Amino acid sequence: MKFLFFDEVSIDLSDARKWYKDQKEGLEEEFSDEIKRALLKIRRYPFGHSIRYRNIRIAHLERFPYNIHFYIDEVLSQIVITAIVHQKRHLSTSMKRGR
Question: What is the pTM of this model?
Fold first, then answer.
């Protein structure tokens, strides 16, 4: 399956990377590497995450307190990433992006 990303996901990532870079030089790269590993895991096992709301599944990062929100479009054979957000961010923020 191919990935498709909502436009807002690039903002999510940019904001998070900036915050981590401000905390410690190089930490933003470690965050990016963790995102890449999580995306590979999602691609391998897209149905391995249960549906949480509106057909959206949530994958948790192992090291950083962020979640990847996504749904599976079986017709188009795509995994659609709707948000990459901090775990403390209110769920309604991600839900507004909907489909």
Answer: 0.87
Give the tens place of pLDDT for each residue, 46-89: 999 999 998 999 999 999 999 999 999 999 999 999 999 998 86
Give the C-alpha separation, 20 to 55, whole Å. 30
CATH among 3.30.70.260, 3.30.2310.20, 1.10.8.60, 3.30.1300.10 for 2-95: 3.30.2310.20
Q: What counts of helices (H) and strands (E) characterise the chain? A: 3, 5
Q: Which long-range contacts (CB under 8 A, 24 or more apart) does 86-89 make?
A: 86/16, 87/60
Give the 3-state secondary structure of residue 86.
Answer: strand
68 - beta bridge partners? 59, 84
Average pLDDT over residues 3-10: 95
Q: Alpha-carbon dihedral of residues 38, 43, 7, 95, nearest 10 degrees?
A: -80
